[in-house]
Amino acid sequence: MKLHNTFSNSIEEFTPINGNKVSMYVCGPTVYDYPHLGHARCYITWDMLYRYLKFLGYDVTYCRNITDVDDKILKKAKEENTTAEVISRRYYEIFSESMKKLNVLKPDIEPFATKTIGEMISIIKDLIKNDYAYEADGDVYFRVKKFKDYGMLSKQPIEDLVAGARVEASSIKEDVLDFALWKKDEEFGYPSPWGKGRPGWHIECSAMSRKHLGKTIDIHAGGADLIFPHHENEIAQSECANGCKFVNYWLHNGFVTINKEKMSKSLKNFVSIDALLNNYDANTIRLFILTNHYRMPVEFSDVALDGAKSGWKRIQTAVNEVVRFVDSKELPDVSASDEINSFKEAMDNDLNTSKALAVIFDSATKANKSVAEKDIDSAKKYAAILLKLTDVMGFNIEKEKMSEQELQNRLQKIVNEMEFLTEEDKKLTGYDLMNKIIEYRNNARKEKNWAIADKVRNLLDSISIVIKDTKDSTIWEEK
Question: By three-state DSSP, how is residue 357 classified?
């Protein structure tokens, strides 16, 4: 498997530090507002990597942090006359629900910045001890020029950074490039050796990744907007504190753009995930994102999403048709098939999801052909391939609702065995007849007539319909 390493700006063979185990850290959200399509692009991308690594057999530990202490959170809390905790908890829950709706797997570890303050202070103390950081009136800053490799990730020479730096007349920093590790804050701060304050944004990820994954990790990923200064600063402070390499593979996804501009809250041009889900299902959004290579920008438009919607419908229909045709028969092992090999070849080439999707579309075409030709062996093969590959890519294949005619055909096989049905009842069709049967069964249960209730359950089971009794109702579904 080969991945594009931002640090070397080249595609490299992926070799984990510790055999089959993979440590993976992704910068999570700052929870102060609604998540948008840009977040969807980022977290679907790394969800795809997480799923694929596990598909390859790696033992992955995926850590994605939550930034719940930040100037933006405090600003929102003041605007709403509430606390930072209330704001961060509210938007964390919204974010979590949005990820669930998008079928993004929860990471193995999801640390909160406010729960890692002690570890941040420990790293800062080490940096001060090693003369890489200094305290100034309650603030603590990192000495950028003391780290000789600063700028290597973003490919920005120190000279250019100095020339572009904004000089603050009242700055207490030794150098304009120095960045904050700790910020004095008497009102909302945490106790520290330098007085009450809050951590700088960059130190948060260094502390959380070290605590949960170790001093050197395999993969660190995030949006391209984090390369500088966030990831550049993470490298500097982590390597100076730990005395070793921080990350082996740096991966970054491209922006989502609207009218060629990056989608962001600051530009007020973002589309929230919830708003998007009002018009498009999660599979459509995932297909829209994965159709494009993860490192390339994605231009948001209704036309592109409508195209993804049509594409997903094509896949979903093919899966439903071929699964119905094989009728739950045992599916073959397709792990060595040409299609799976082609899928892996695409994904092993720096997660080429566009080519991987082409394998799925081609398999959908062949599945449709096998159904049309009544070729059961071929149908079973492509049913297995489609179910496997759509699962690896994180699509959620929903069981198609049984058609009215299909339900009627099944019920006709057992209706004469239901002596409690009247002749008028038997004239009902499809869903109306099914509702009547459920009504009789519910009445039988209320009257503790378990013989009738069990008979209905068993007869429906014989035509592959399952009854489920809940606290408030009775539901049925196809096996």
Answer: helix
